């Protein structure tokens, strides 16, 4: 996600409550109010986009009255963003719990004009500075509708649509690594099962999360079945006073002929920070990461994190490929207490010597 500048503008003019001693002027008092449908400027910094700026129309809400504790907050937004690397994002997002969490509805769709680096697949992977640059356009839509089976266990149907087109590879000396099939149109459908017992979907402190899905993917150009994908995402959170421990295990696997732009990617602001997203990509992926967060001051948390993982052309090869490791530290600035919204600032390095600085909204997982 992204970091709203609105919180920083307010922070410039108002100090925390315990310093001023006047609740009406505290940032907590200002930012603990109900968040309505409002346009806000945004800023994202990461190695993949450089600096991305734009406008978001955000809406944090509950589908039941605030006094109801059985329904967690939901989020919807529309965004328009442009980066210093001439990347364009126009996107619609919704993650919503219906009243009393009887159902969960997720939707994400948009148009993207993107720039991506390509090092090849798992083997061989070029050096850190030896890569192709691919510019392409993409239409994307994915989502799910699931029913609460009780005890926050959700089962339902999910879908995914990706169309990559107008791909162009910039002039490069690494002609032997130029991939084929960078233009593709794929649609998938399949069952989803989720156990979501997190206290908050934006910045969890307690609980666990397990998400499983398997989609059958169809090639719309060839009008035939293309491949199968499977995803398992397990997360666990534990809070002890002001200390939070978080862990995530992610396993992704596919069977069949997967287009190069559809292969699983390691790296980026969510999985393996410090590694450029897509430096390792293939038909199978695993990653294990952990993070420690401590509320050092009323508005600020400090964080330390680490991760390991790799990709492979075969599932069995995941255990024999060289493991990539990442580590780093950062700060979390609280922008809204009632919704537990934080701005994140992270610096990370990897065992390959790569690094990255990230500024965005929300935790990595």
From TrEMBL:
State the name under which the record lists this protein: Bacterial surface antigen (D15) domain-containing protein
Keywords from the named record: Membrane
- Asked whether the keyword Ribonucleoprotein is assigned, the reply is no
Superkingdom of origin organism: Bacteria
Localization per Swiss-Prot or TrEMBL: Membrane
Q: Which Gene3D superfamilies does the entry link to?
A: membrane protein fhac: a member of the omp85/tpsb transporter family
**Annotated Gene Ontology cellular component terms:** outer membrane
**UniProt main location, coarse:** membrane
């Amino acid at each position: 996600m992204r970091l709203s500048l609105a919180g920083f503008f307010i922070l410039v003019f108002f100090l925390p409550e315990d310093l001023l001693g006047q609740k009406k002027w505290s940032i907590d008092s200002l930012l603990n109010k109900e968040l309505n449908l409002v346009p806000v400027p945004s800023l994202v910094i990461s190695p993949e986009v450089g600096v991305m700026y734009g406008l978001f129309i955000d809406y944090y809400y509950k589908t039941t009255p605030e006094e109801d504790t059985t329904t967690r907050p939901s989020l919807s937004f529309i965004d328009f963003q442009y980066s210093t690397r001439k990347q364009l994002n126009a996107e619609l997002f919704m993650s919503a719990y219906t009243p009393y969490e009887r159902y969960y509805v997720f939707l994400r769709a948009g148009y993207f004009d993107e720039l991506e680096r390509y090092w090849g697949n798992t083997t061989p992977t070029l050096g850190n500075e030896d890569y192709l640059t691919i510019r392409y356009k993409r239409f994307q839509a994915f989502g799910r509708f699931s029913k609460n089976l009780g005890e926050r266990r959700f089962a339902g149907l999910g879908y995914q649509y990706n169309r990559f087109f107008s791909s162009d590879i910039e002039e490069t000396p690494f002609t032997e690594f130029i991939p084929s099939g960078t233009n593709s149109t794929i649609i998938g459908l399949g069952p989803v099962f989720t156990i979501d017992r997190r206290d908050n979907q934006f910045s969890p402190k307690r609980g666990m999360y397990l998400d499983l899905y398997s989609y059958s993917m169809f090639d719309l150009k060839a009008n035939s079945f293309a491949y199968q994908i499977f995803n398992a995402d397990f997360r666990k959170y534990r809070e002890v006073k002001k200390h939070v421990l978080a862990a995530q295990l992610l396993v992704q696997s596919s069977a069949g002929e997967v287009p190069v732009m559809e292969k699983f990617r390691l790296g980026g602001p969510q999985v393996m920070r410090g590694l450029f997203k897509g430096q390792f990509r293939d038909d199978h992926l695993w990653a294990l990461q952990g993070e420690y967060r401590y509320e050092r001051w009323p508005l600020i948390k400090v964080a330390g994190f680490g991760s390991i993982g790799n990709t492979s052309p075969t599932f069995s090869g995941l255990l024999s490929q060289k493991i990539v490791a990442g580590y780093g530290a950062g700060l979390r600035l609280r922008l809204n207490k009632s919704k537990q919204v934080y701005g994140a600032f992270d610096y990370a390095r990897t065992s390959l010597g790569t690094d990255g600085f990230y500024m965005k909204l929300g935790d990595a997982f």
